[in-house]
Design a protein that fits this description.
single chain; 133 residues; alpha+beta; Thiol Ester Dehydrase, Chain A; two-stranded antiparallel ribbon; 3 helices; 8 strands
Length: 133
């Protein structure tokens, strides 16, 4: 949990002071390396860590846009409505992967995201998220 909190602080500081701003509906891609502590039996990524990766990229796009400031002014904060995950292949330790977050659709209440986990151009996992404000 400490690593999770530290990573969130890193994303918040980086998004507000060092990284350039992005548009809410732009596709954001992040490159990551699978760490040994993210793995079960020190071999493959644990199922729960995929959701951590999804949180990190979602919060990064939230902090890098004006969305965070506007929602905090109104006293709102995003809440996960539902998440679904499809595992295709296991991610092994020390391998590089890219996570892409496109905003698929939105309406007056929900925002729908699809997170795609790719390695060497091949899809390894896909996550679907429904977020409410």
């Amino acid at each position: 949990m400490i690593c999770y909190c530290m990573h969130m602080i890193y994303i918040y500081v980086g998004a507000n002071y060092f990284w350039k701003k992005v548009v809410v509906y732009s596709d954001l891609t992040r490159l990551r390396r699978v760490r040994i502590l993210d793995c079960e039996s020190l071999r493959y990524v644990a199922n729960s860590k995929y959701f951590y990766y999804m949180d990190f990229i979602r919060f990064e796009i939230l902090f890098r846009t004006q969305l965070y400031k506007n929602t905090m002014k109104k006293g709102l904060f995003p809440v996960i409505g539902s998440q679904k995950f499809i595992y295709k292949k296991p991610l092994k330790r020390w391998t590089k992967l890219s996570i892409t977050l496109p905003v698929e659709a939105w309406n007056e209440k929900w925002v729908y995201h699809t997170q795609t986990f790719k390695q060497k151009g091949e899809v390894y996992a896909v996550g679907f998220t429904k977020v409410a404000f």
